[in-house]
Design goal:
Layout: H1 11-25, H2 34-38, H3 46-55, H4 61-65, H5 78-93, H6 97-105, H7 107-128, H8 142-171, H9 178-190, H10 213-240, H11 253-278, H12 289-311, H13 318-334, H14 342-361
């Protein structure tokens, strides 16, 4: 006698099953952007599920409040199933897909090997450079640094742009208006979807306690990263527009933005690592845990090596530290379309699409 067992559901199929149950219950309607968006539909196409998954910030409050989690026969685990659908969207829409899947599953090893290889590359460049130049340019000419880093930054951004274009089409994003951009910017800047819908925070690391820790760590990382980007941008303007070349004093814009930004990024990375180590891996995409941790470590390393380089100014440690710092920065750039760095672009785009969908629904 043989048993005719049904094949297991794919992540998208299981997400559809679980979201339809949630839509009938609606107990968690005020928790985050996912649940109001869910109520617009009675049936969910694949694009609808992709949109909901990227609106989800994995705060996990809905899971701990749900009466249909295991051992109930419905076996709902909304944070995990949306994490799988979200992860699938990042990998499926990336170019090339195989590299995205490889990084997310073997991220620590890939990022580590790339940092080591690029450190050796920059060290060899510094060793071959003739004497001359001031500050960092004593180890690498400014024009050479620009020639290396501009393509390494622009090419990944172009790949991300193509991924977001395909995402917008898949989720049915409409015409973008200024009010949609402002609303999405407000949601992203204040991390409102990490606030639990009630203002007390989320339950990421502890189901019995609401906490703002994850929201604060994310804000430190985001605003620190933007401050460091502002430091680089202001340095570029000073160099090319005003003819003021590095190194810069502590009161100059590159330092005023870069030093606090680096400190914020290190603090944010430390907070996110601590929270991730305490959180339940079964409420996320377990298979990519290593890739997510590699991304946090890489961001922290970029900031930490930058701060160390600043503190080492005028010492013999500048050369080796510069090679390591440039390697971590280039690794971050090259892996942007494939690492969890992509989540910021996708989540902002999801918030932007949701602002438009809310306008249309009115």
């Amino acid at each position: 006698m043989s048993l005719d067992l049904a094949p297991p559901l794919t992540a998208t199929e299981d997400a559809r099953r679980q979201i339809e149950i949630c839509n009938a219950c609606r107990y968690c309607e005020g928790f985050c952007s996912v649940f109001p968006a869910m109520t617009r539909n009675k049936a969910f196409a694949d694009g609808d599920l992709t949109h909901l998954a990227n609106l989800c910030h994995n705060c996990r409050g809905c899971h701990y409040a749900c009466q249909y989690t295991p051992p109930h026969e419905f076996a709902l685990n909304i944070p995990a199933v949306l994490a799988e659908v979200r992860q699938d969207s990042w990998e499926r829409l990336a170019r090339p897909q195989a590299l995205a899947r490889m990084f997310h599953e073997r991220g620590v090893a890939m990022a580590g090997l790339l940092v080591v290889a690029l450190t050796l590359f920059f060290a060899l460049i510094a060793a071959a450079r003739p004497p001359g130049g001031e500050g960092f340019y004593a180890y690498m000419a400014h024009n050479l640094m620009i020639a290396i880093f501009i393509p390494a930054f622009v090419a990944p951004l172009a790949l991300i742009g193509l991924s977001l274009r395909d995402y917008w089409r898949e989720v049915g994003g409409g015409r973008i208006r200024l009010r949609h951009l402002l609303k999405a910017g407000d949601m992203a800047g204040r991390m409102r979807n990490l606030n639990g819908g009630h203002g007390d925070g989320c339950n990421f690391e502890d189901g019995d306690r609401f906490s703002q820790k994850r929201r604060i760590a994310h804000q430190l990382m985001m605003w620190g990263f933007l401050a460091c980007f502002a430091a680089t941008s202001s340095g570029t303007i000073l160099h090319y527009v005003f003819g003021w070349h590095a190194p810069y004093p502590i009161w100059a814009p590159p330092k005023l933005f870069g030093v606090p930004g680096g400190i914020a990024m290190v603090a944010g990375a430390a907070g996110l690592i601590a929270l991730k180590l305490r959180a339940d891996p079964d409420l996320g995409a377990r298979r990519v845990w290593g890739g997510e941790m590699a991304f946090i470590l890489l961001l922290g390393a970029v900031a930490a090596t930058g701060l160390a380089l600043w503190l080492a100014t005028g010492t013999g440690a500048v050369g080796p530290l510069l090679a390591v710092h440039l390697a971590t920065v280039m690794t971050l750039f090259l892996l942007m379309p494939f690492s969890k760095m992509i989540h910021g672009f996708f989540r902002f785009t999801a918030l932007l699409a949701e602002a438009g969908k809310q306008d249309t629904a009115r």
